[in-house]
Automatic annotation (TrEMBL):
UniProt source species: Thermotoga petrophila
A matching Pfam family: FtsA
A GO CC term assigned to this protein in UniProt: cell division site
Transmembrane segments: none
One GO BP annotation of this record: cell division
Keywords assigned by UniProt, alphabetized: Cell cycle, Cell division
Domain SHS2: start-end pairs: 10-198
Annotated Gene3D superfamilies: 3.30.420.40, Actin, Chain A, domain 4
Listed name of the protein: Cell division protein FtsA, putative
Lineage: Bacteria, Thermotogati, Thermotogota, Thermotogae, Thermotogales
UniProt-listed InterPro entries: ATPase_NBD (IPR043129), FtsA/MreB (IPR050696), SHS2_FtsA (IPR003494)
Length: 264
């Protein structure tokens, strides 16, 4: 076991309509260890929206307390919190930087500034980007490269693909969570985070579709050439499967859910 006194903690929380799940990881040097895991019933959410703020906060607080009980200490950690919403969209942005006749070496600072500009442009359109991918680098309007660092060009054009959510949806989750989670946190898309976690680079380059069966709806995300090219949702999820099992077996919804979890 790694020494907790010298460990950096990271906590991942996934907010679903049926369950809220949490995982605490510890890192020291290059060693990682799962230190705590918990799953509690989600309350106050319906169809990806917060409908009861008090119940929602109580659910998150219950999860945090269970994680702290397993750690036997207060949870001081960087948080990544993912959630599901049918409002997620894919949006492309093109940013160009022209250096005039002089060719300049492309540095990390230049790329960072261009990405920041892409993020700001999305926000100006009322969208909050949760994930951003560099889709294509074009030097001098004619040369496509995979990595422009240290290459010289008089102009660089970058095409970005972003997964965005309307500002009002982002603020709804962020404001409620800010009152509950007392540490810094980032908000991410559950669908994208799941896909990034299970896919390899060759799979994303070659082309692949991930189907994430949620409680209220099913999310689909397609990759090609390393970036998402399509994101969509189907209004059918595990809730509908549980209802069918309940009807066929003539049992309660809760018992049908237990049977699915236990026996698959």
């Amino acid at each position: 076991m790694i020494d907790l006194s010298k460990t950096v903690f990271y906590t991942s929380i996934d907010i679903g309509s049926r369950y809220i799940k949490g995982l605490v990881l510890g890192k020291r040097d290059q060693e990682w260890e799962a230190l705590a895991f918990s799953s509690v019933k989600s309350r106050g959410l319906d169809e990806g929206e917060i409908k009861d703020a008090i119940a929602f906060k109580e659910s998150v607080n219950t999860l945090l307390k269970e994680l702290e009980e397993q750690l036997q200490k207060s949870l001081r950690s960087d948080f990544v919190i993912s959630f599901s919403s049918v409002s997620f969209e894919r949006e492309d942005t093109v940013i160009e930087r022209d250096f005039g006749e002089e060719k300049r070496s492309i540095t990390l600072d230049i790329l960072s500034e261009m990405q920041s500009e892409a993020l700001e442009r999305l926000k100006e359109n009322g969208k909050t980007p949760l994930h951003i991918f560099s889709k294509r680098y074009l030097l001098d309007g004619e040369r496509i490269v995979f990595n422009p660092l240290d290459m010289k060009a008089s102009k660089i054009t970058i095409e970005y693909t972003s997964i965005v959510v309307p500002l009002k949806v982002y603020e709804m989750f962020y404001n409620f969570l800010q009152d509950t989670v007392k540490s810094p946190f980032q908000l991410k898309s559950s669908l994208v985070s799941t896909a990034e976690g299970v896919l390899t680079t060759p799979e994303k380059d070659r082309g692949v579709v991930v189907v994430n069966l949620g409680y209220n709806f099913t999310g689909l995300i397609a990759y090609k050439n390393g970036v998402p090219i399509k994101i969509s949702y189907v209004p059918v999820g595990m809730k509908h499967v549980i209802k069918d099992v309940s009807a066929v077996l003539d049992t309660s919804f809760e018992e049908a859910e237990r049977l699915i979890i236990t026996h698959g």
